[in-house]
Amino acid sequence: MPSANTETHAITVHLDKLLADRQMTLVELSERVGVSVVNLSILKNGRARAIRFSTLTKVCEVLGCQPGDLLSHCRPSSGPRLST
After folding, report:
1. What one-character-per-residue DSSP string does the chain give?
2. pLDDT (tens digit, 9 = 90+) per residue, 45-65?
3. What is the CATH number of the domain that holds 34?
4. In terms of residue numbers, what domain contains 53?
5. Number of domain units in the chain
6. What is the pTM of this model?
C-alpha cells in the first residue's frame, strides 16, 4: 500500500488554463479568493491532497466557472476497467 506521501490520484487540475483564458495571475486570484499563493500553487500543480468546498466555491465564483471546468478525472491508461 502506498504511503500518504507517495499516493497518486487521477484528478487533473486546469487552473493554469483558466487563469490564462482570463488573463489573470495566481497572485490576483489569491487576493480575490483569500487563499495564499502557496496553496493555490500547490492546487495548480496537482499536488493538493484536498480542497475545501468553500475554497472551490470562491475560486469558481472569481473565475466564473464550474467545478468541472477546474477539475477532471482521468482514467489510468492501463489496468482493468470496471463495467457499469
Report:
1. ---TTT----EEE-HHHHHHHTT--HHHHHHHHT--HHHHHHHHTT--S---HHHHHHHHHHHT--HHHHEEE---SSSPPPP-
2. 999 999 999 999 999 999 999
3. 1.10.260.40
4. 16-69
5. 1
6. 0.79
